[in-house]
Design a protein that fits this description.
This protein has one domain. It has 2 helices and 4 strands; from the N terminus they run H-E-E-E-E-H. The mean pLDDT is about 90. It has about 140 residues and is of the alpha+beta class. A two-stranded antiparallel ribbon has the order 1-2. It starts with a helix and ends with a helix. Helix content is about 45%, strand content about 20%.
Length: about 140
């Protein structure tokens, strides 16, 4: 794998992790949303990754070398039943006094966000290592 292909793979990972982070933040921001335009409480979203061949902009120069990176294949909504809480004075309470809240655990969402941040940082570290290798190669050619 060429150094440019390695950069492309890390860039695809960073892009996918950014989408995952945005989705996790949206989930956390809507943890208490009981009413949406679609009706009912907010539904937690999950990002699904898949592998994808990454074509480098330099692939024509480097014999069409392709590397496998990552892409966001889908963003799914959680279909589990919402959490019901007894709050009879809430405006969204049903006839029995229960309010439907999104089914999510803020601690789990925060742990996933931390994992996403670390994955993003790992891709940055990989890109930095490749950049250093390219710089050292140029220095050797001087």
């Amino acid at each position: 794998m060429s150094l440019f292909a390695a950069l492309q793979v890390s860039a695809s990972g960073m892009q996918a992790e950014r989408t995952r982070a945005e989705t996790l933040v949206e989930n956390m921001a809507n943890a208490e949303t009981t009413r949406t335009p679609e009706g009912g409480p907010y539904k937690r979203k999950d990002v699904v990754f898949s592998s994808e061949l990454q074509e480098s902009p330099f692939s024509a120069v480097f014999q069409n070398e392709l590397a496998t990176g990552v892409t966001v294949a889908d963003i799914t909504e959680d279909q589990s039943a919402p959490d019901l809480r007894y709050l009879p004075s809430h405006p969204d309470a049903n006839s029995e006094g229960y309010v439907a809240f999104p089914k999510m655990n803020p601690a789990t969402e925060m742990a996933d966000l931390l994992n996403t941040t670390r994955s993003y940082q790992a891709n940055i570290a990989a890109m930095t290592a490749v950049k250093d290798m390219i710089t050292h190669s140029i220095d050797l050619l001087r």
